[in-house]
């Protein structure tokens, strides 16, 4: 809700400036539409606003409409990737990696499966064609469709990379559920502790901490 209100207000402000001052101010109309659309996604329309496809690419029409927002998200990702001292990904349990959106050279050795939780950024072609790829577009700060993802992971035995934009929220939720599915963690608190011990900047909001446990667990938060 907070993200939705923030993006919508930014869009409305730019739209007001465009209409009020006209002239070159009309250039603000495009980012205004983009941010209002993103705000609508967070306020209820959902990830379909971004038009991310199952193969990790983005629908050209959605990308064109949202380009000002997508460019901002990409610039933030690049700056953090370049300036941050945090590793692209960390192994939170044997064969289970959590990280940010990767470049191909940053993929863990021997990775068999990549789970992409971003909706706001496309997946680099070199990454999504490197091995088996599963896309699950999820709004930032939201909880992915965990039951569906666990079905897709199945009996994958090789290394798995679970990533979102920065590897601090959405990806950690999926990793926590996977640790419980594989009985590496006894409950969600234990799973989150194991993940943060390996990747210290992981931060889950209240909604993410209340993710649904596997049916065979009695999980007390």
Q: Could you explain how this protein is built, in words?
A:
The chain folds into 2 domains: 2-83; 89-209, Protein tyrosine phosphatase superfamily (Protein-Tyrosine Phosphatase, Chain A, Alpha-Beta Complex), CATH 3.90.190. The two termini are 23 Å apart. The relative contact order is 0.12. It is an alpha/beta fold and 221 residues long. The mean pLDDT is 93. Strand 1 (89-93) and strand 2 form a beta hairpin. The protein is built from 8 helices and 5 strands. Strands 1-2-5-3-4 form a 5-stranded mixed beta sheet, covered by helices on one side.
Question: Strands across the major sheet, in which order?
Answer: 1-2-5-3-4
Span between termini:
23 Å
Q: What's the count of strands?
A: 5
Mean pLDDT over all positions: 93
Helix fraction?
Answer: 40-55%
CATH class of the largest domain: Alpha Beta
Biggest β-sheet strands, sense, barrel: 5 strands, mixed
Q: Examine the secondary-structure arrangement and name the CATH architecture of the largest domain.
A: Alpha-Beta Complex
- Global Rg: 18 Å
Total helical segments:
8
Q: From the helix content, strand content and strand pairing, which structural class follows?
A: alpha/beta
Low-confidence stretches: none
Shape: elongated
Keywords:
221 residues; alpha/beta; Protein-Tyrosine Phosphatase, Chain A; five-stranded mixed sheet; 8 helices; 5 strands; elongated
Element layout with pairings:
Blueprint: H1 2-21, H2 29-45, H3 60-83, E1 89-93, E2 96-99, E3 113-116, H4 125-128, E4 132-135, H5 146-153, E5 160-163, H6 170-181, H7 188-198, H8 206-209
Parallel strand pairs: 2-5, 3-4, 3-5
Antiparallel strand pairs: 1-2
